[in-house]
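quick one, three chains, predict together pls
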Amino acid sequence: MVDNFRRSIIANKAEAMINGSVTGDNGVVLTEIPFLAQVNIRGNCEDKKFVAGVKSATGLAVPTTPNSYVSKGDLTIFWLSPDEWQVIGPVDAQNDLVAKLRDALSGQHVAVIDVSGNRTALELSGAQARNVMKKGCRLDMDPQSFAPGQVVQTRVAKAPVILQMVDDKPVFRMFVRPSFAEYLVDWLLDAMSEYRYSA
Amino acid sequence: MLYIKCPWCGERDETEYHYGGEAHIARPENPDELTDAEWAEYVFMRTNTKGVHRERWVHSDGCRRWFNVARNTVTNEIVAVYKAGEKLELPAAEAVKAEAETKKAPAKKPAKKPATVKKAAVDKKEGA
Amino acid sequence: MTEKFRTSHGTGVDRSSVINFTFNGKAYRGVAGDTLASALVANGVHLVGRSFKTHRPRGILTCGSEEPNAIIQLETGPRSEPNLRATQIELYEGLIAKSVNCWPSVNFDVLAVNGLASRLFVAGFYYKTFMDPKSMWMTVYEPMIRRMAGLGVLPREKDPDTYDHMNEFCEVMVIGAGPAGLAAALAAGKSGARVVLCDEQVEFGGSLLNSKEIIDGRPALEWVASAVAELEAMDNVRLLKRANAFGYYDHNYITVHERRTDHFGPGAKPELARHRVWHFRAKQVVLATGSHERPLVFADNDRPGIMLAASGQAYANRYGALPGKRGVVFTNNDSAYRVAIDLVDAGMAIPMVIDLREVADGELPNVARQKGIEVVTGAGIVATEGRKRLKAIEIAQISSDGEKITGAKRRIECDTILMSGGWNPAVHLFSQSIGKLRYDEEKACFLPNISSQKERTVGACKGTFDLQSALEEGMAAGALAAQDSGFGKGKAPAAPKAIVVVEKPLKAIWVVPTDHPVGQGPRKHFVDYQHDVTAADIMLAAREGMHSVEHMKRFTTTGMATDQGKLSNVNGLAILSAQLGKAIPQVGTTTFRPPYTPVTFGALAGRGINGDLADPVRRTPMYSWHLEHGATFEPVGQWQRAWYYPKAGEDMHAAVTRESKALRDGVGILDASTLGKIDIQGKDAAQFLNMIYTNAWLKLPVGSCRYGFMLKEDGMVFDDGVTSRLGENHFHMTTTTGGAAGVLDWLEEYLQTEWPDLEVYCTSVTEEWSTLSIGGPKARELLEELAPEMDFSNEAFPFMTWREGDVAGVPARVFRISFTGDLSYEINVRNWHGLHMWEKCMELGAKYDITPYGTETMHVLRAEKGFVIIGQDTDGTQTPQDLGMDWIIAKSKADFIGRRSFVREDTKRSDRKQLVGLMTENPKEVLAEGAQLTYERVNPTPAPMVGHVTSAYWSPNLDHSIAMAMVKDGHNRMGQWIYAHDRGKVTKVKIVSPVFYDQKGERRDG
């Protein structure tokens, strides 16, 4: 079913993101990936029934290493805390995911919550993406410290985000609360400005 | 700015955390049995440690876990970080120092009622 | 103008590349590699400023960041910058600079008359002179002080440049790229660790840039060049020039201010951030910050032409600019003999070295003698002449205790004094890191003693003043720092070989006598040049009881100027110690605080200099609609909420009046998306809510909602909201907009630390849901149109229940709750459907004349009903009883957070401040929020305050002004008249119930 009623909160920024991005070998590109399915899971990963339930619903074992994620097909599970995970899936997958997870975990002390609207995703990619991240993020962004397979909750500029390192091109994904999205886009575009000149 | 190692997420800037005051002050299980003075001790009174201080922090921007930090209030050196409900034994020298510093401050012991909720009770007995 | 003092040498300048500049309105020429100061020296310009209080002529004293005198205003217009040090400004074509503290010009300064009255300007001058009457503090004294003491001028225009910040991590951070720092970086770099080397200067090399040292048999600068080349070739090393490490904070957090484009001239590189602040976290730090030469405190030691010895050497060696035609060296140590030798070699006449020591028989004094320089020992300069430039000096033998002149005076004509009182290690960053210092008697300076962080100090900063040892220390520290951060084996590479010259110890004479006792004649012994603090001022401070160095500092303002006392602190401390008859270590030193040198606000602001980026602006999904429809916005924390929607010609009052009536008469719509929302589930969820709210939750039916108060353990209200039962073990909690994050932390605190066995999960869903509040007598009709499948009748959907269904084509949760007192529904839809739902409401509501209203109208409507706003009507000192809401406390519950505090004496007092309504005698007069209240119109002084107004509005629906207030014993004083005070205006008001409108609550069912 196509949902004609939904609107990205930063639809007004689409053009600015295209104009502010720098393509090419030394560039940096900012885009929004709206409406991704996001499902929050709370539970006890030391309980085999819980792990098995999530596995049967998603095909993935919940990651137990802090700051890591696992992916298979179009599903990804982020570690968020010792008892909290977030499943990321394709647009419109949330109802099916919630139903399957609730079914597989029924009777356990868990929470399965559809939070697809709670954040939107921004993607920052290109050779200069790491430098742009360093301007706004106070974590060690060097490749030996932050690599594909890692996801952290932190801040970029002053916006709280879930920050995923997708691959080492590099591609970063920031899951940001919608209310902060326009601020964060404006901030990132401003931080990218020096690379627009050099490109 | 402090650099605090969250027991789960690793080292992060202080700005990702919120401070939660002195650690190992368990909520009395039966507040009605306390005198006003004892209750006020629990609610308001805290040690003012010069030296190693046990305190709570919450990783608000990260995993939202509350945990304990042993921090030297003179140098800000973080002696140890441990999870809520965990036990911390300081190296002997540190412990002696911590005790000496605490004795200098006016005695501020939490309410005498020992009975508290489960793990928190364990915490308190082992606290500084 | 020609460069009369330029020589054919100068290792750091390119004489073939001419640069034109203007100083104080006059055109000059310099060359590539010059600083503004070196170009002025080359042109024979030494008079560069006026002193702070007495406006005495002042000259260039140093060649580095410690400069107290050559403080200038650079450029004009929006890029103008005040209070920069000429010694650090790189010359560029067309540079325009002028002195700051003079009017109308540095040559003729009107306020120099202050110098004639300088006896008035003694220590504590400000405290003593500008005391009484108090009425003149702001009107007369402050403007006068500002005009007299003015430094530069801030530009009025918006800063056109950009600034940024960069966060980096490294294993080894080396600060200072002199010989020790370069060695440390080389050793650490070879281990493969991430190394950062930063230096405030334009080039790496530190002191080697200024001297003529030999390393490995060749000029030291060749070794520097090869070391830098080797470092540049390492991928793991980051080199930062023009980068001042200005702060050393906890846990090896170091901030560095890099000037990226200033040397190209203003606005020359618009694509680059002009300045960058680097934030480094280093596993290990090596401080190689060098040392500052110390001035000698002698009579009239501030005339233009008096310069620190090594700075004079730097001007000659590095910039090829002689400090004068004929100079003398005045010293208490061997290092200044090097200066005499180099200056003679460069072509300057140096007839004499005056040495405070009785004996000068070291290697360097002997070389000087061989050059034909007269060495006068056991002597000092006891007077100087010359107003805008030094003309002559008088020297005399002085007693070995330094107390008095013992021989005849001898007059010598000269235009330059090159002075050296020994060296102060630049321990500022070490001190900022909470490292502990010790005083070294032999070197007469403070040295790093005990580190507080993972840090090592090397070279001159550690008191290691000889080159060979500094190189070896650097190599060793670099290797060990790398090892301690997990790289390499800690073995230091071999250090290069410098020529070792043994220097004899110095002799500290802190005040050189003159022919009258210090402070009693016309001659002045300056200690702090920038703040005009003299030895006499410090002695006076001691006599007046300022026995602590911290008190002396504040009383005299020693070390409190923009140079932060880099040159004056130790001299001042030593003079204080002598006056008190104590040893220097007993008196101690003041604390160094960041920044090491001043940093522009733009750099600190970074991208935030663009106001919109300074702090997040949080927007709801309907923000764009509000904007397009003319809303004005009110910041609520970081949120921008629609405040009111003025139509053409309406002011705020008119708009709010219209909006308030529209809701009571028809239907209004409010964007309430900012409310905090928390999903709470688990088998113990209801029990948990029972502990954190004051009322009872176990029996709340599924499908129902309840309003609750949260208290802290002290019994005081800290948040409120409506929580709804979604399922047996599942709740949807709402919090105040501002309280959302704090409430979630607080819930987790209790769950994780007090009751870890409770099976409850809390998850923030604040932004999962957009919330539209639709209220007014016609709200039901609109809802029925929006959701034809749902039953909105009072029977099927009563007050304080919620229902789920399809609204306007999207899934929604509808809550029947009311903050206005009228029939009201809150529609919650997924964030990305918020705008659609709003537009649909406006479309279908058109026939009911639906009126969007903002937070101001919301405040008015809730105040008409007496509903409190946490944080406006409360301030963390109110119990529910104080708010007149005993009903919200479940008496049956044995425990909940805060309950025990209600039986404490203080919370039981009947005369606590209590929430009441206020009605003004004049119905049109709206009280000021924050107005203080008294029981009587006329009061004794001080007046007994009995409370204050917390909320005050014009109520269009009552056609009367209304207010809410906290009043002492207010609940017992209904009907009583009291008085509100607002800046002299007194208003008579009556205490009434805070429920002003629809007291029976008949409107909420429509």
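Residues 178-191 of chain A form the longest helix (14 residues).
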